[in-house]
Amino acid sequence: MAKKAKAKTAKTAAKSKKAKKVVTKAAAKTATKAKAAKKGKITRREYTKEDIKELKAHSKARTPVAEIARLTNRTVGSLRQKALKLGIGLGHQR
Q: Where is the stretch described as Disordered (predicted)?
């Protein structure tokens, strides 16, 4: 009988651990969504002629990509893709 009691206790403990993990994951998702809402999601915007001129100027000046992203309110990936399509180098280490 003692073995059965220990087995039940172990199962109960395992279930409670799973329940805690589920609650933790749900809390993490909620926190991530809240962060995104606070920060403001960057939406897709087309590059204007002025944006392209600015990007080329930053390319010549060898401005770091992270700084360009902050100044233009665009993602690093977006800037790199546009630079690739334009055939210009981007970043201070090329």
A: 1-42
Counting beta carbons within 10 angstroms of the beta carbon of residue 68, is it exposed (0 to 12), middle (13 to 18) or buried (19 or more)? Answer: buried
Q: Are residues 54 and 36 in the same domain?
A: no
| Digit-coded pLDDT (tens) for 3-23 | 666 666 766 666 666 666 666
What's the CA dihedral at 12, 13, 15, 18 to 10 degrees?
180
Nearest Cα neighbor of 54 from 86, 21, 7 is: 86
53 and 73 both lie in a single domain: yes
When divided into structural domains, the chain yields a total of 2
Tokens of residue 62, six digits: 């060898």
Same domain, 36 and 1: yes
- Backbone phi, then psi, for 73, in 5-degree steps? 60, 45
pLDDT digits (tens, 9 = 90+) for 27-80: 776 666 665 556 677 688 999 999 999 999 999 999 999 999 999 999 999 999
Q: Which residue has the tokens 């401005």?
A: 63
